[in-house]
Amino acid sequence: MQRKLLIVEDEPDIAHLVQKHLQDAGYDADIASNGAAAMELFRKNSYQLVILDLMLPDTDGLTLCRKMRSAEEYVAILMLTAKSTELDRVLGLEMGADDYLTKPFSVPELMARIKALFRRIDALKEDTKGITEQASIERGGLYIDVNKRSVQVEGELVDLTAREFDLLLFFARHPGRVFSRIQLLDKVWGYNHDGYEHTVNSHINRLRSKIEQDPSEPQYVLTVWGVGYKFRDQRSDA
Amino acid sequence: MQRKLLIVEDEPDIAHLVQKHLQDAGYDADIASNGAAAMELFRKNSYQLVILDLMLPDTDGLTLCRKMRSAEEYVAILMLTAKSTELDRVLGLEMGADDYLTKPFSVPELMARIKALFRRIDALKEDTKGITEQASIERGGLYIDVNKRSVQVEGELVDLTAREFDLLLFFARHPGRVFSRIQLLDKVWGYNHDGYEHTVNSHINRLRSKIEQDPSEPQYVLTVWGVGYKFRDQRSDA
DNA sequence: CGTAATTATCACAAAACAATCACAACTGCA
DNA sequence: TGCAGTTGTGATTGTTTTGTGATAATTACG
C-alpha cells in the first residue's frame, strides 16, 4: 500500500530534504509551505501522516493541527518545533499530535519516528478492525476463519497458501459480484503489482482443486465468460 | 451506560490533559496522584478502566496493578511506562495489564486504545468466559505456569529465556490464531520497538529447539507460509 | 460444424520466504 | 569492572510458493 504524507514546512531546504528521503524510502510526500496551502492539499488528498512545522508564516501550527484533527478520517500528526520546553510538549500533545520532534533534528531520527508511527497506526487499525470486518464467514459448505486463516469445506480443513486464502477471502466477502482479472490483481495482489492476467487463472485453478468437490463444475468460484470470476451468490443461481 | 475511569498519574499536567480529553469524549474520569489515593478511590468506586502510571511517588505501579487485579470485579488496566525496557519486564511479568503505552504518548493514540479496550471488555462480558487471565495454561504436552514463568514439556522442565517465554506465552494464549512477524514484534517486544522482522525467526528457532521434540516438525509453534506463525489449535491439524 | 476467442491445466524455473548458524552487541549481575 | 547469558543481526542454505510458457479444453457464434 502506498503511504501518502504531507510536509508542512516553510523552509524550502528542509522540506525538500525531507521529501527526498521520504521518496527514497518509498513514500509519496507532498509539500506545503504555509497554512493555507496545507489545508487546501489536506482537503483534496487523503494523507496518512502530516509532518507539521509549528512555526509558519501565516497560520500557527497548533490551529492547523486542530483543524486537521477535526477531519473525518484519522491522520497521524508529527510536529516539528524549535523550542523544547515541557509546556510545548504537553501543548502539542493536547492539540493532538501523535509524536514530537525538536529542531534541529537528524534525518535518520525523523525517518525512524515516521516508520514507528506508521507501525503504531497499523497496529491500531488492526485493533479497530473487529467492528467493520467479520472474523469469520460462512457461505454454503464453506467456513472461513479470518484470524486463524483457516478454511473448512463441509467441515473438512483444507490447506491453502497465502495467495489462495487471500483470493478466496476476497471473493467470499463480495458474493455475487463479478471481478475482472485486472480487478483481482489490483485488489488481491495490490495496486502496484505488475504481471500477467492469466496468473489469476492459475490461482483460481489451484484454489478450485482444493475447495471444490468437482473442479470442473465449481460450486464456489464461478467463471463468468468473457469477463472474469465471481463467488456464487446464495440464492441466485448460475 | 456511563464509563468510569481512574487516572493514576503523579504529573498533574498529564493527568489533567488526559482527564480533559476523556471528558470531551463522554467518559467520567477521576484522578489519583499516588498509590494510596488510588487504592482508596478504587475501593470506593467501581471503575471499568484504570490508566496506571508505573512510576509513582509512593507505591510502585506493579503492586498497585496486582492489588487491583485481586479485586472481586474485573477491571481493565492500561499501563503507562517510561521506557521500553521497563515495558518488556512488565509485559513479561504479565502482571495483568490489558494494554500499555509508553511515554511520551499521544492523546489520540491513548483515546484509541481506550476505545479499543472498552470494546474488548464488552465482548468479553458477552462471552462470560472468564478464562482470559489464567495463572497456568495447559496445551497438549505443554504446561505453562505464568507466575513461576516455568514451562514443562511432557512433564520435563525446560529452561526458557525471558523473550522465549513471553513469545510462547503469547502464542499459547491465542491458539490457532495467525500472527505476522510485525504483530509479534508489537505485542511481544512492544509497540515502539524497532528492529528487523527476521529477529522473530531466530527466536522462534531457538524456542523450537527447546520445546519441540523434533524442531523440523513442530508440534506447537507452526509456520504459516507467507504470513507468520501460529500456535497449533487443539482439534485442527497441520 | 468449424473457427476464433477465451479459459483450464500442467510443469517448471525463478522468486519469495523461512530455517539455521555464527557472531557481535548488549544485559544484568557478582 | 568483568563475566555469563541473552538477544539482535548478517550471511548462507534450504524450502515453498508463485508466475509464466506451452498446450489442451471449452465456449461463442457464424
UniProtKB/TrEMBL annotation, chains A, B:
**Listed GO MF terms:** phosphorelay response regulator activity; transcription cis-regulatory region binding
Q: Where is the secretion signal located?
A: none
Annotated Gene Ontology cellular components are: cytosol; protein-DNA complex
User: What SUPFAM superfamilies does the entry give?
Assistant: C-terminal effector domain of the bipartite response regulators (SSF46894), CheY-like (SSF52172)
Q: What are the residue boundaries of the OmpR/PhoB-type domain, all occurrences included?
A: 134-233
GO BP field = regulation of DNA-templated transcription
Q: Which UniProt keywords apply?
A: DNA-binding, Phosphoprotein, Transcription, Transcription regulation, Two-component regulatory system
Q: Does the keyword Nucleotide-binding apply?
A: no
Pfam families membership = Response_reg (PF00072), Trans_reg_C (PF00486)
Residues annotated as carrying 4-aspartylphosphate in the record are: 53
DNA-binding region extent: 134-233
Superkingdom, taxonomy of origin:
Bacteria
Q: Where is the Response regulatory domain?
A: 4-118
Q: What is known about what this protein does?
A: This protein is a positive regulator for the phosphate regulon. Transcription of this operon is positively regulated by PhoB and PhoR when phosphate is limited.
**What is this protein called in UniProt?**
Phosphate regulon transcriptional regulatory protein PhoB
Lineage, uppermost ranks: Bacteria, Pseudomonadati, Pseudomonadota, Gammaproteobacteria, Chromatiales
